[in-house]
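Trying the structure run again after the queue cleared.
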Amino acid sequence: MKDVYMVHLSLPEHFNSEMWDVIPAQRVMVNDLMERRLILSYSLDMDRRNLWIFMEAADVIEVNNLIKKFPIIKFVKIRIHELAFYDAAPVGLPELILN
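Done. Tokens:
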């Protein structure tokens, strides 16, 4: 059974050119992990200092192994928190009304 983890990535105060260069690859990887439902949500604050990622994984080792592959990994500090539960609003198609 898989559990949900919240990963908090602290970003550097100033991005250098190397950091900017890896952002497109980071988005590609995140999009792939979201399509595979390994990442449930991915959020960046307005100051571009904090990323919060909700991930589904078998254990913290699996989460850590995925995070270590992120293109931005050498620029960030990581904190991983196992959650007791994760609730989210249902996502789906609008209800059809048949007249």
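The mean pLDDT is 93. Worth checking whether this holds up in the mutant runs.
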